[in-house]
Amino acid sequence: MQQKRIILAGATGALGLKIAHYLIQSGATVRALVRRGSAGDAVVALKQQGVEIVEVDYKDLNQLAQACADGDCVVSALSGLREVIIDAQTNLLQAAVAAHVPRFIPSDYCIDYTRLPPGSNRNLDLRREFAQRLDKAPIAATSVLNGMFTDLLTGQAPVVLFGLRRIAYWGDAGKLLDFTTLDNTTHFTALAALGDTTPRYLRIAGEIADVMDLKQAATQVTGKTFRLFRIGSLRAFRTLIRITKTIAPSEQEVFPPWQGMQYLHDMFSGLPKLNPLDNNRYAGIRWTTIREVLASRAS
């Protein structure tokens, strides 16, 4: 079977590096598009794996099209706001079409924004807007949608409060939540990129749990009793988000405090629940549990 060439944008980020690793591990040829002047450990790590590095200007469509030549799939792991998710990705999409690349995977890797009302989450609104452009382009497209990165439960997401031995939540304690590790998401994405055909959306979750399940997992891995801490209703959470955004807008940051709050609100609302799941589409992925991730923090 002919070796596939994958064009990878955003390869120097956390997602991109892992996608590149799994693509190489699966036998693909990888061409990483990096911005001019990119250097550092990430570029070195890519080169050591045998990844071809091509410097590009995302505003130069001809240059982008040349960089996409002979590609079997373009995978975007770009991260940013409108100038990246909309503008740069649109140029990348146009270049992929011009270079006759058959497939495109956008930088989604998030909860199911297709089931959320517009205006509920800025970063997901950008992904929805780009999806509308992608759907109009003459190219096969696949978005990978996943639960919240389980890795965030070890500290960045204010849900498992190790110091207080509490599981913080808003709204209904019985609401089911989707969690997927960064590693599982990138492994799945690499396998999807190497497939010949994929549906428009693929949905994955390493584990589905409610806050009682989180409480049990945290208690088991630490040997200390955790309790639930209901902060308030979802309506109160929406009010807090509006206040936080007014006091500290930080509109130019990708993840200001209110953005993370919007993400948690969406999860606790249950609206973006992933269904059906495509976990069994590819063999060889061992789905990491919440308990395993929390154990790495507790050890």
From TrEMBL:
<protein>
    <submittedName>
        <fullName>NAD(P)H-binding protein</fullName>
    </submittedName>
</protein>
<dbReference type="Pfam" id="PF05368">
    <property type="entry name" value="NmrA"/>
</dbReference>
<dbReference type="InterPro" id="IPR008030">
    <property type="entry name" value="NmrA-like"/>
</dbReference>
<dbReference type="GO" id="GO:0016491">
    <property type="term" value="F:oxidoreductase activity"/>
</dbReference>
<dbReference type="InterPro" id="IPR051609">
    <property type="entry name" value="NmrA/Isoflavone_reductase-like"/>
</dbReference>
<feature type="domain" description="NmrA-like">
    <location>
        <begin position="3"/>
        <end position="115"/>
    </location>
</feature>
<dbReference type="InterPro" id="IPR036291">
    <property type="entry name" value="NAD(P)-bd_dom_sf"/>
</dbReference>
<keyword id="KW-0560">Oxidoreductase</keyword>
<keyword id="KW-0521">NADP</keyword>
